Amino acid sequence: MPLEKIVHEPGRAWGLWHITEHEQELSMRLGALERVPESLTHPNKRLEFWAGRVLVKEILESMKVSFRGIVKDDFGKPFPAGLDYHLSLSHSYPYVAALVDTKHSVGIDLEQPKEKLFRIAPRVFAPGELHDAGTDLTKHCVYWCAKEAMLKVYGKKDLVFAENLLVSPFSLEGEGDIHGKIIVEDQVRMIPLHYVVYPNFVVVFNQSEEI
């Protein structure tokens, strides 16, 4: 089974899925609980849709609750239907990641290190971040994922990556903690983040707010 892992922490769990199935195989695991949007026409995007929901189903069932589908708020942020839980999803074919928390807003992002990040970075990184990332493509990917994860924690889309979502310099390892902050007007919210570097992708998510 392409479920790579489910990691449990107090009040939350996150998981990874490696897509190897056909669309019908994935959709059959959900029955009538979900329906792929008509706007999703690319085969890989459709697979990401189904795999993400199957992964969330696996995570919720591992937390001893039932999956009833996924709903979205006015800003497009997903939530498990029928549960007062928080959810974040990310995908970069053929990989999917999901994070569920019973109390707090969450953000997870999965990306594959690709050369295009070097072109994007000057527009979305603050000068200090750009300097710290240097020419290390994996580090660029961690910075990018960290900002995406914080944006999902915030839950709205009206932030400027280089100004409102900042990440402190860090030494790149195979796995580690980094410090982020969301700055909106005069308010600063510190966001502790954790990253994991896999052979083909990077995952970053906000850490638990539980003491």
UniProtKB/TrEMBL annotation:
InterPro entries: 4-PPantetheinyl_Trfase_dom (IPR008278), 4-PPantetheinyl_Trfase_dom_sf (IPR037143). Residues 105-158 form the 4'-phosphopantetheinyl transferase domain. Pfam families: ACPS. It comes from the Bacteria. Keywords: Transferase. One of its GO terms (molecular function) is transferase activity. This is 4'-phosphopantetheinyl transferase superfamily protein.
